[in-house]
Structures are given as C-alpha cells and as structure tokens.
Amino acid sequence: MNENKFNLGLNLPQRHRKGVMTTFGVIVAPFYRVSEVMAEGTPVVLDDAKPGFVKKATAGACENGVFGIVAQEVYDPSALGELSGYEFHNNTKARVGDTVGVIIGQGYVETINYAGTIVAGDKVYVGENGKLVNTKSGNDLPVGVAETAGTDGGDYVRVRVNFDFFADTVEAAATAEESNSN
After folding, report:
1. Helices in 35-83 by DSSP H: which ranges?
2. Rounded to 5 degrees, what angle do the CA atoms 95, 34, 100 make?
3. Long-range residue pairs from 89-94, CB within 8 A, at least 24 positions apart, any chain
4. How far apart, in Å, do the first and last CA atoms of the chain sit?
5. Within 10 A of 164 (CB to CB), how many other CB atoms are there?
6. In terms of C-beta density within 10 A (0-12 exposed, 13-18 middle, 19 or more buried), how is residue 42 classed?
7. Bridge partner list, 158
8. d(CA 27, CA 38)
9. What pLDDT score does 62 carry?
10. Helix (H, G, I), strand (E, B) or coil at 179
11. Mean residue pLDDT across the chain
C-alpha cells in the first residue's frame, strides 16, 4: 500500500502562523491604541507621551516591568496602496492608530515571538525588536517563565506571565520579580 496516497503534490499556500496562539487566565484589554507597526506577541509598555496608547517595550528599558503583550498584528495601512481605505471584515489585524487587544494580567500565553533557544524554566525578558529572550538586559524585570521549549520561533512556547499594573514602585517591582521567579 502506498503511504503517500493522500499527498497530491499540490503546492498550496500554508496558513499564516499567529504570533500568539492560545491564552489562559489572562485578560485581553481591547481599548489601547498603538502608533507603530508591531507583530502580535510584542511586549508593550504604556506610552507616557500619549495617554491611552501603548508602545513597544525595549531591551534594557523595562525595569518597571512590561504592561502586556499585543494580541494582534499591527500594520501600516498605506502598505495596501489603493485598498488602504477599505475594511476587510475577516481581518483580525489592526492598523496603526486603531485600538488593539493587549494581553494583561496573570496566566499563560503561547507565542512564537521569541529569539534564540528557550528552555522550560527559563525566565524570559524583552529582547531586540520586541522578541522574548532568555537573557536579561540591565535591570529589566522578567516578562514571565517559559513552561515549554523552542528555538527561534519555530515552535510555540508557553510562557507563564504576570503583568503587574503597579510596578512603578520599587516594592511592587520586587513583588513582580518574585512572582515571575516562581
């Protein structure tokens, strides 16, 4: 019997892999706006210069912690050319300036938005280009702890996250550090 009888040799396009696949226990806040392009799964902080907006978290600048993770891809609508004014009802992506879902709170997130090799038990931090890494920069607080392993976004990695809303004080930051370390 031919084992490849169902392989028709079709060159079909592969389904887009979402940057954030599943979540458990976290909250998706749907009312923050973004003013820059970013991939889903990008860690964000509140934008002090623009109330109601979030911006990409950067490596070495997260000593007060990360506010959350973007649950949708954000794109520049001018990339659509003549279709830039149209709304596509089946599109789950957000445009620059739109509201976007931000994963906040405490729970689990599965993402492919990471760089390098992540091993179960690693603390994950914000790295270059908004990707999660297992290397700390400066006094950054961890985003969470990896529950599964993966390399360079090849597999989904489940991360136990704890986004502390009030990490602007040293005491709250230490509490978030302790919670993310367990």
Report:
1. none
2. 65
3. 94/34
4. 52
5. 21
6. buried
7. 110
8. 20
9. 83
10. helix
11. 81
Distance CA 97, CA 32 (A): 10
The confidence score (pLDDT) of residue 169 equals 43
Burial (0-12, 13-18, 19+ Cβ within 10 Å), 10? exposed
Among 111-115, 140-144, 151-155, 172-176, the minimum mean pLDDT is found in 172-176
Size of the chain, expressed as the number of residues it contains: 182
Rounded alpha-carbon distances, angstroms, from residue 167 to 21, 37, 75, 124, 172: 27, 26, 29, 17, 5
The number of CA neighbours under 13 Å toward the Cβ of 57 is 31
Band (pLDDT 50/70/90 cuts) for residue 1 is very low
Average pLDDT, integer, range 126-141: 89
Which residues is 114 bridged to in the sheet? Answer: 132
pTM, rounded to two decimals: 0.77
Phi, psi of 161 (to 5 degrees): -110, 155
Rounded to whole angstroms, the Cα distance separating 154 from 151 reads 6
Strands (E), 38-152: 43-46, 53-56, 68-70, 74-75, 94-95, 99-104, 106-111, 117-118, 123-126, 132-133, 144-146, 150-151
Residue type, 28: V
Say how far residue 131 (Cα) sits from the centre of its chain.
Answer: 8
